[in-house]
C-alpha cells in the first residue's frame, strides 16, 4: 500500500489543547512551526526565569502536564485568530490572548491541576532570547532537540485491536500521522531517511510514552495504564518516532510518504 500523510497536528501550549492543520511549512533543524511554543510553568519552577523571562528549554517536570494531571488530556482547541480558544468538558470555554493575558490560562487550568500533588500553575511562558540573540525557535517539547513526532495509523489500529478498545489519536499528541505503513514498521526505521512531499527528514529516536497516554481524551479520566500495557505487549513503552527535518518545504495531508 502507498503510504501518505494523513494529518498534521500542532500543540500551541504544551499539554493543553491542540489543533489540526491544513498544511505546515517545515524548516531544516526546526520543530513544526508554533508547536509547543508556550508552556505553563508551575510555581516550583519560577526560579528558572531570568529577569522574569524564560531564556532556555526546560524539561517537562517544570511545567503543568498531562502525566501529572489526567484531566488536562481532555482540553481541546488552538488558535482562533490572535487568541487561543480552549474547551474542556468540566469547564467553561476560555478564549484569551496569550501575549496580553498570560495569567488567564493559569487560573482556568487550576481546577484540572489541583489533584496533581504539584505546585500550582504560575505563568505562561515561551523561550525568549537575550536582546543580542536572534529570535528563538526553541519549542518546549519533551526533547530539547528540534524534532517533529511521527506516528502511524496502522500501528494505532493494531494496538487498539490488541487492547480491545479505541484509543484515538489525541492521547499521543503527535505532529504527523502516516497512513499506509505496515503496523509498527516505524520502530525499525530509526536513522533512515524519509520524504513527505517535498520535505526530507531523518528518523532519529523512538518516542517513549508516559502516564499522560493513559487518559481518555474525551473525559480526562484514566482508562488504563498505557506505559504498562506497552511494556507487557512489547517489552518497551515506545509508540511513534521522532524525526529531524533535513530539507524544508510545505507538507499537506495526502502527500506521498517514501522511505529512502
TrEMBL record:
InterPro entries: MoCF_Sase_C, MOCOS_middle, Pyrv_Knase-like_insert_dom_sf. It comes from Paracoccus sanguinis. This is MOSC domain-containing protein. GO terms for molecular function: catalytic activity; molybdenum ion binding; pyridoxal phosphate binding. Pfam families: MOSC (PF03473), MOSC_N (PF03476). It comes from the Bacteria. Gene3D superfamilies: PK beta-barrel domain-like. Transmembrane segments: none annotated. Residues 122-260 form the MOSC domain.
Amino acid at each position: 500500500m502507498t503510504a501518505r500523510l494523513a494529518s498534521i497536528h500542532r500543540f500551541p501550549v504544551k499539554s493543553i489543547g491542540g489543533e489540526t492543520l491544513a498544511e505546515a511549512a517545515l524548516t531544516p533543524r526546526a520543530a513544526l512551526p508554533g508547536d509547543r511554543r508556550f508552556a505553563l510553568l508551575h510555581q516550583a519552577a519560577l526560579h528558572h526565569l531570568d529577569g522574569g523571562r524564560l531564556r532556555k528549554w526546560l524539561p517537562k517536570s517544570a511545567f503543568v502536564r498531562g502525566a501529572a494531571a489526567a484531566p488536562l488530556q481532555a482540553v481541546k482547541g488552538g488558535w482562533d485568530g490572535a487568541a487561543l480558544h480552549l474547551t474542556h468538558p468540566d469547564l467553561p470555554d476560555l478564549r484569551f490572548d496569550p501575549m496580553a493575558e498570560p495569567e488567564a490560562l493559569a487560573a482556568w487550568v487550576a481546577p484540572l491541576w489541583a489533584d496533581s500533588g504539584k505546585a500550582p500553575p504560575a505563568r505562561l511562558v515561551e523561550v525568549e532570547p537575550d536582546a543580542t540573540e536572534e529570535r528563538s525557535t526553541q519549542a518546549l517539547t519533551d526533547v530539547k532537540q528540534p524534532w517533529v513526532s511521527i506516528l502511524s495509523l496502522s500501528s494505532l489500529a493494531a494496538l487498539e485491536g490488541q487492547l480491545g478498545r479505541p484509543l484515538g489519536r489525541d492521547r499521543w499528541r503527535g505532529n504527523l500521522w502516516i497512513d499506509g505503513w505496515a503496523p509498527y514498521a516505524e520502530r525499525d526505521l530509526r536513522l533512515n531517511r524519509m520524504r513527505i512531499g517535498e520535505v526530507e527528514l531523518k528518523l532519529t529516536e523512538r518516542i517513549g510514552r508516559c502516564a499522560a497516554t493513559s487518559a481518555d481524551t474525551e473525559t480526562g479520566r484514566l482508562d488504563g495504564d498505557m506505559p504498562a500495557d506497552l511494556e507487557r505487549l512489547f517489552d518497551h513503552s515506545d509508540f511513534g518516532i521522532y524525526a529531524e527535518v533535513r530539507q524544508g518545504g510545505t507538507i499537506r495531508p495526502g502527500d506521498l510518504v517514501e522511505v529512502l
